Amino acid sequence: MADGAVLRVRRVGGQSHYYHNVTNDFLLDGMSASSGSPAEARGTGVGVLDRVVAILDAVETTPLRSSELARHVGLSVPTAHRLVRAMVVHGLLRRDAEGRHWLGQRFPSSPLVRTAEPVLVALARQTGESCQLWVRRGVRRLCVVSIEADKELRASLPVSALLPISVGGSAAFALEAPAPAPDHPGWFESVAGRIAGVCSVSAPVRQNGEVLAAVCVSAPIARAVEGPGVRFGDSVVAAAAQLEGALRHGR
Length: 251
Prior knowledge:
By secondary structure, the protein is of the alpha+beta class. The chain is 36% helix and 24% strand. It has helices at residues 22-27, 38-41, 47-61, 66-73, 77-89, 111-127, 170-175, 228-248; strands at residues 6-9, 17-18, 93-95, 101-103, 130-137, 140-147, 153-156, 162-164, 188-191, 198-207, 210-220. Strands 2, 5, 6, 8, 9, 10 and 11 form a seven-stranded antiparallel beta sheet that branches. Helix 6 (111-127) runs antiparallel to helix 8.
């Protein structure tokens, strides 16, 4: 399966880059955060929600520890700790190895997406095929970056495609990948798993030992007769490793 891709024939002069800033749509919605404290700027009278949004506003530009968030938002340290822990569980925040908090993977405008886009553009150029970045959303997976191949016949899907993990596909396998084993190639493939004529190969992107996302290349089977893993696997694994390194060093 090409991870929910639909095989299409279209004439396109160049690559199409799909990128949607969900965080701004979700958080800003016509409100200004340029003045006052985050809690004051977002005051709605719904205390817990106002505090959660204030925390999201704070970490959108600068990663902060729980104690720093408490001071920034005007909360007690125990309250900040409880909120932050719950937000991490729900994917609203992610915590790095130094205890700092960033926007979580529920927000496609997070540093993950901004960092991944040029990596996937380069991967699409190298492989000549469509590339996607998938993240987990509970029992489903969401496409947050999509770079289309510059070909008439291609495996194509848009950002915001949402598929059950239970239906399989190489990206689903990568998102559920166990700890890496020495004898495993690092990639997962799928051939005509859901859609006839389409195949894909994916590699997990890990951070602090956990799978954060999956890099995927999808293509018509006719262009990967030896198998998508054999043809594109090493390139996908290298792109995932490049993304891991960029995230680790804040690039």
